[in-house]
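# step 3/5: fold
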Amino acid sequence: MEVTMTPEERAEFEAFKAEKERKEALQRAKDDREAYKNLVEDQIETVFPRLLETSDYLRDVKQNCMRCFDQALKMKADLFNVKDDQRSHTFTNAEGTRRIILGYYITDNYRDTVNEGIAIIKEVIASLARDKESEILVEAVLRLLSKDQKGNLKASRVLQLRKMADQLANERFAEGVRIIEEAFQPEQSKQFIRAEYKNEIGMWVNVPLGMTEA
């Protein structure tokens, strides 16, 4: 049955249909967002316990590995009559095809007196900025004095400052470098375990033990 509408009725109908479609689209978008939130929630609840179990397992394996080699480390120190101040130890099997490396990371750290050393160096280099060439030197030294995100200088940069101090033969500059060096107080950070094996062509291959490596 054909329905006849006036232009005004047609316009009103089209407006009604467009509004209805707009509301339906909004509702679909809302439903999709809700479905996404529910999906994420479900996956978190599914995966998170497994990740916790994996973390606990890795921690237990790491601790057990450290305990297993603790006696070997003590015997090594006694056999070779050396102070155990190594940052890492490598243990290799008889065939030379497998090895385990135990160690710890060192982070650069300084006592608060480092700031006095930095102030002295800045004072010296500020007095040297007379021309273009000296300004380049000043900028280079300031870059070496820049701190990392934890507020510490990098030990490698302090080494470069020491080389500069030797070249400049400026006693005040050298004093600032000495204060920085004396303030250096490295800290032992996290322990690590690496496992490696030789492949068929004799290359050492790392066994992935972290989430980013697996």
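# step 4/5: annotate
The mean pLDDT is 85.
# step 5/5: archive (pending)
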